[in-house]
Design goal:
Elements lengths: L1 H26 L17 E4 L12 E6 L3 E3 L2 H4 L1 E3 L7 E5 L2 E5 L9 E7 L2 E3 L9 E6 L7 E9 L10 E5 L14 E4 L5 E7 L5 E5 L14 E4 L7 E12 L7 E13 L3 E7 L8 E8 L2 E6 L8 E4 L8 E3 L7 E6 L2 H4 L3 E10 L2 E10 L15 E2 L1 E3 L11 E5 L3 E4 L4 E7 L2 E4 L3 E4 L7 E5 L7 E6 L4 E3 L4 E2 L2 E6 L7 E7 L6 E6 L5 E6 L4 E7 L2 E9 L21 E3 L4 E3 L4 E6 L20
Parallel strand pairs: 10-18, 26-36, 38-45
Antiparallel strand pairs: 1-2, 2-6, 3-8, 4-7, 5-6, 7-9, 10-13, 11-12, 11-14, 14-15, 15-18, 16-17, 19-20, 20-23, 21-24, 22-23, 24-25, 27-28, 28-33, 29-35, 30-31, 30-34, 32-33, 34-37, 38-41, 39-40, 39-42, 42-43, 42-44
């Protein structure tokens, strides 16, 4: 009896497990086959509605059939139709079929090229049919000429991916700012482009970062470039010979077979992409009043000179002082008139030069006292001190402090600078220097520094009083100093002294760390923090001390830039010497391997 019961239980368990496994396999059918070798084969073309390089073509719709289901990846970035169309063609992938339907009428005696790039991929694994392209002609013959080259960033020499390169038959430079390209192509990840299937006529060549795909330079602010000379594509035949030896006599020649291969020139054009410098017209973007005592004017571009600010609801002419800033596009003013400080709303006009005229804006700024977020409101009345110097203090730097409001007075007796010797702190004499005598917000602490020493600055409470009666809380900063042995030095020996050269030391992000004018056969950079660096050279043709971009109308190339082809590893207490012949290596090969290979 018991054995029969056990058999029934085992039978029921087995049936239950089988049902569960069956249901699980049914539920997983959508997942497809599991395991096995991953498909890496791209879609294969089986047939098309019109042959590649067909002539006398009239069909507005083309179709291709592949051996598997396909889809289109990143159409905007991959697919390009040349010549460009006023109305974009409809391009679809459905099942195994790819179709292109032209909305514009096909022009007579014209060769068309549809460059799919890597857009056509299989449905499951997204394996791309790389560089898939199709062409046809509406005339009796098809154009076969090609132009090729590279597009690089003018400032960094980085190959530029996804840039439209186009040509014009027109001799007018104005075509680039008014008319779509006659023919065009797109750069790949190496910055390389090939404009295929074009007539053998002279062309102007331009490059454009064309996000909206207008296919001409329709607005400033885009990256653009051009090839400085007109070019005419040519077919180049290369003779190839193959020597056939006599089988019976290994030392005698039976015959010499000849054949030809064809390439097209030019195939090495180099276009430098840049952004034109726009003429910035200053306008008032915004006015802010972050505190009762101050307001800020934000301009769209730096002003050439001080604006005229005239009060409306305050009877005074001397009521402001401006905080010193590096640029005249963010202007911070502090109110000095006691009557103006009592007003919740201040009204005034701002007059400044904008384009060729004097522009005046009327402003009303209201300040609302924020509610206290903590019970200790006394801290709101304290004058905040911030250190602008990090420890360890660089040997070329000094200790700098900044307060939140302009200072009225400093009691130097309440400031104490000490240096630790063994375990004892000793007083150090010092002087204070204001960055701006008109609006005293930043001060430098000047003293005779010792190498690799420990210092402490103590500022007692109420040592500093602002123009508005606020006082500081006690402040303490400890810091150390560096030694010349903590730094590296770099000597650059020039094979040829670059004319009006500026050599730039770059960090790993290509940020300029140091810039030095070149005038001697050897350039020395001292007191460099140890680390990895790169070198860039600018030929400052107009000698204004900086790299200048180019322009399209008139055609003006950006100033020349060169890169040292190796990464520099600078070590502390070590003098590195590098010899640089900046023209020895082609521009495309100058960027060090550790730098980014391309940009989009």
């Amino acid at each position: 009896m018991i054995s029969t019961l056990i058999k029934r239980i085992l039978l029921i368990s087995a049936i239950t497990v089988s049902v569960v496994l069956l249901l699980h396999s049914c539920a997983n059918r959508g997942a497809g086959p599991q395991g096995g070798i991953r498909d890496t084969t791209p879609p294969q073309l089986l047939k098309s509605s019109q042959s590649n390089k067909a002539t006398s073509a009239t069909n507005q719709r083309l179709e291709w059939i592949f051996d598997e289901n396909i889809q289109l990846e990143k159409q905007q970035e991959n697919i390009l139709v040349s010549p460009p169309q006023k109305q974009a063609p409809t391009i679809r992938a459905m099942g195994k079929k790819l179709s292109v339907a032209f909305a514009d009428s096909l022009a007579s005696n014209t060769t068309y090229t549809i460059d799919f790039g890597n857009a056509v991929v299989d449905l499951n694994e997204k394996n791309p049919l790389a560089n898939f392209s199709w062409s046809f002609a509406t005339g009796a013959t098809i154009d076969t000429m090609q132009l090729a080259g590279y597009v690089i960033d003018a400032r960094t020499l980085t190959p530029y991916e996804g840039i439209i390169v186009g040509v014009y038959k027109s001799n007018k430079d104005s075509a680039f700012v008014s008319t779509p390209f006659d023919y065009m192509a797109r750069t790949n990840s190496q910055g390389f482009f090939t404009i295929r299937n074009i007539p053998q006529v002279p062309y102007q060549v331009y490059a454009l970062k064309d996000i909206p795909q207008a296919f001409y330079y329709d607005q400033k602010g885009k990256e653009i470039g051009f090839f400085s000379q007109k070019v005419t594509p040519e077919e180049v035949k290369h003779l190839q010979t193959d020597t056939i030896w006599n089988d019976n006599d290994s030392v005698s020649i039976l015959r010499i077979d000849t054949s030809y291969s064809i390439s097209y020139a030019p195939n090495d054009m180099l276009i430098k992409l840049f952004r034109e410098e726009r003429a910035m017209i200053p306008t008032l973007r915004r006015a802010l009043r972050p505190s009762k005592e101050s307001f800020t004017l934000l301009m769209s571009a730096p002003l050439d000179k001080e604006p005229l600010i005239t009060p409306i609801n305050v009877e005074t002419s001397n009521w402001l002082k401006r905080e010193q800033t590096n640029r005249m596009d963010s202007l911070v003013y502090w109110i000095t008139d006691s009557n103006a400080l009592t007003l919740d709303t201040i009204q005034f006009t701002v007059s400044y030069a904008s384009a060729d005229s004097l522009k005046t804006d009327t402003i009303a700024l209201t300040y609302k006292q924020p509610r206290a977020r903590t019970a200790n409101e006394k801290t709101l009345q304290q004058l905040e001190i911030v250190s602008l110097t990090k420890s360890p203090v660089d040997i070329a730097d000094t200790l700098r402090l900044q307060v939140k409001e302009p200072m009225k007075s400093i009691d130097i007796e309440k400031m104490h600078l000490t240096m630790r010797i063994d375990t004892t702190w000793h007083n150090v004499p010092f002087l204070l220097q204001y960055d701006d005598d008109n609006c005293k917000k930043k001060i430098s602490v000047l003293f005779d520094r010792k190498e690799r020493a420990n210092y402490r600055l103590v500022i007692d409470s109420a040592a500093i009083v602002s123009d508005y009666g606020k006082q500081n809380a006690s402040f303490v900063q400890t810091f150390t100093t560096k030694s010349p042995d903590d730094y590296a030095s770099l000597m650059i020996e020039w094979k040829n002294i670059p004319p009006h050269g500026i050599v730039e030391l770059l960090d790993a992000k290509e940020t300029v760390v140091r810039a030095v004018h070149v005038s001697e056969p050897t350039t020395v950079l001292r007191l460099l923090s140890p680390g990895n660096y790169f070198l860039r050279l600018v030929l400052d043709a107009n000698q204004n001390g900086k790299w200048d971009t180019g322009s399209v109308l008139p055609k003006q190339e950006p100033e020349e830039v060169y890169y040292y082809p190796k990464r520099l590893v600078l070590r502390a207490n070590w003098d590195s010497v590098e010899e640089w012949d900046y023209t020895a290596i082609p521009l495309l090969q100058q960027r060090a391997t550790e730098l980014p290979k391309s940009k989009k």
